[in-house]
Amino acid sequence: MRKYALIFLGILLLIAACNQEAKPVILAEVNGETLELEAFKATLGDGVWDSLDSATRRRYVEDWVNLTLLAQAAKEAGLDQDPGIRERISYAGKKVKANALISERLSQLRISEDQLFSYFRVHQAEFQKPALTYDIQRIQLPDKLTAESVYEQILQGLDFEQAVARFSTDNLRQARGRMGLVESTSPDSMFWLAARELELGQPGIVSKDDFWYVFRYTATQESEKEASFEEYRAEIRRKILSEKQEEVYQSLLREIKAQGNEIYYY
């Protein structure tokens, strides 16, 4: 009997341990509304929460608390019953769900090397031009939230070089954040790639080696060599995915409409 009692006790302890492990971690609670860690991680994106320091995590949670308080106050005031507000909330929810479905289908696409190179050959006239180098100026920051804050301040009129002096955490601050001319084949090629999406002087954000950077380019210079397929690889992949996005959208619509959904226009 004692043997069975011990086995039964062990089972009870195992069940209790499993229940304990299944209990969600709560980061904050506002009037009964809770913020669960795993759900919040999913909202931020892969690996973002784990890369943040404790102070930044607290700011993220505080932002959620403040937003929740405002949303609850709006509900108490009956604003969520306004027909226009209700429709905007409904439409926003539909967009999030639809984009998630399209993104999930796009993530299944596999673009081969042959497809990349075929695209390059077909559009060769577009790509055959001298390679550019970019004179990059950057601000190194410890996390994404700080980078976004500095980025917004610059958009609102803060002088970029003042922002370098005030916020940058790397040695280039003494050189006003200037990296010099960055090429596609340099160790900092990600700045080169991101700069191609910006206008002269326009700020952007990139992450590299556990840091976040607000950056801009202040000048360009033609390289002596012609741009190659390798330099356009990432851009070609983005172009193909962009073109495929419309195909995926239309394909999904055809599949779903073929399932006999009831649709009426009045």
Detailed description of the structure:
It is a single chain. The chain is of the alpha+beta class and 266 residues long. Among the domains are: 75 residues, Helicase, Ruva Protein, domain 3; 108 residues, Chitinase A, domain 3. Helix content is 56%, strand content 18%. It contains eleven helices and six strands. The chain has a four-stranded antiparallel β-sheet. A hairpin with a 2-residue loop joins β5 and β6. α6 crosses α11. The chain is globular. It starts with a helix and ends in a 9-residue tail after the last helix.
Topology:
Elements lengths: L1 H21 L3 E5 L2 E4 H8 L3 H4 L2 H23 L6 H24 L6 H10 L1 H4 L2 E12 L2 H12 L4 H8 L10 E5 L6 H7 L8 E5 L2 E16 L2 H29 L9
Antiparallel strand pairs: 1-2, 3-4, 3-6, 5-6
- Percent strand: 15-25%
The count of strands amounts to 6
CATH topology of the domain at 123-230: Chitinase A, domain 3
**Large-scale geometry:** globular
Largest sheet: 4 strands, antiparallel
Residue runs with pLDDT of under 50 for 5 or more positions:
none
**Helix-strand string:** HEEHHHHHHEHHEHEEH
Given this structure, which CATH class of the domain at 123-230 is correct? Answer: Alpha Beta
Content-based structural category? alpha+beta
* Count of DSSP H/I helices: 11
pLDDT averaged residue by residue: 82
